[in-house]
Amino acid sequence: MRYIDFHCDTIYEALIGGCDISNPSFHITPEKTRIINPYIQCFAICVPEEIVKDDATLMFKQAYKKLVEQCAKYDIKIIKSYKDIEYLYKNGGKGAVFTVENASVLAGKLENIKLFSDYGVKIVTLTWNGENELGGGAQTNEKLGLTDFGTEVIRELENKKIIIDVSHASDKLFYDVVSNSKRPLIATHSNSRSVTDVKRNLTDEQFEIIKSRGGVVGLNFHRYFLNNNPQKASMYDILRHCEYFLSLGGENTVAIGADFDGCELPDDIKGIDSLGDIYEMFLSHNYSESLVDKIFFENAREFCKNFDK
Q1: Mean pLDDT in residue range 44-54
Q2: Do you find a cis peptide bond into 48, omega within 30 degrees of 0?
Q3: How many whole angstroms separate alpha carbon 189 and alpha carbon 167?
């Protein structure tokens, strides 16, 4: 099975826990991913909202150091360019993409975007659920969009060819980003609000905008985003959200952003070692092998390959 996953919090958990990514309590470990080849994982440094200014920037640097150490230990290739993804596509192996969740790591300084380039960051989720220097997250006042600083950040991220992630955005922030950006957008780990009515999920219109601009949307495995009754969530709900996005013409748009080690999974999903069961579930519901491969790998690969064009 080939797999690209746009979001996990494993490196953050390893950093704050002072442990190795082989910790068996994690949803993702090197052992649990042994049958996936090629396997490319976006590892996010999720900065808690109470950590701000220079402390947030410091945490970002510490997370990158941790990622480098762990990748060296477990023979994981750090993705420096999208050509590295193509190399793994052709030759197999495991790759890690360093991403940022919550651009408070900039500490309100536009010049800190250079750190993103220096550290190989490929994707930046602008906010978490609350407010930061860029604007409003999903749980803030819905009228809180981009700040002037946020608008400058959008422009500079695109100049640096860094992908803008609208997961966790307030609705106003989403539309402000659309108005102030030119490149394709991504929602790394977001589901359908029409299926599960929470603010963290995307409206039909938001999905259509991402699709029309050549972006992708990663299905999230968090039980609270999968089912309006979270305690009844199951892996089948992933299929429900996928089918709804496909009904909107999303065959080339849907990908995976499972949110492993950053979410509460349904009872029938243990972690990434359940991925084979999820893959087989899609096949058993009359999805062609080629369509399932697009959802699990090819759509993400094509998006990354074509982002700069």
Answers
A1: 96
A2: no
A3: 6
Model pTM score = 0.97
| Mean pLDDT score of the chain | 97
Residues 6+ apart with CB under 8 A from 160: 113, 116, 117
Q: What is the mean pLDDT of residues 131-154?
A: 95
Q: Look up tokens 């009872």; give the residue.
A: 267
Distances (CA, A) of 97 to 8, 77, 162, 242: 11, 9, 12, 24
pLDDT in tens, 160-213: 999 999 999 999 999 999 999 999 999 999 999 999 999 999 999 999 999 999
Give the CATH number of domain 3-306: 3.20.20.140
Please name which of 122, 109, 130, 118 lies closest in space to residue 157, comparing C-alpha atoms. Answer: 122
CA-CA distances (angstroms) from residue 94 to 2, 83, 121, 232? Answer: 10, 14, 17, 33
Is 32 in contact with 86 (CB distance < 8 Å)? no
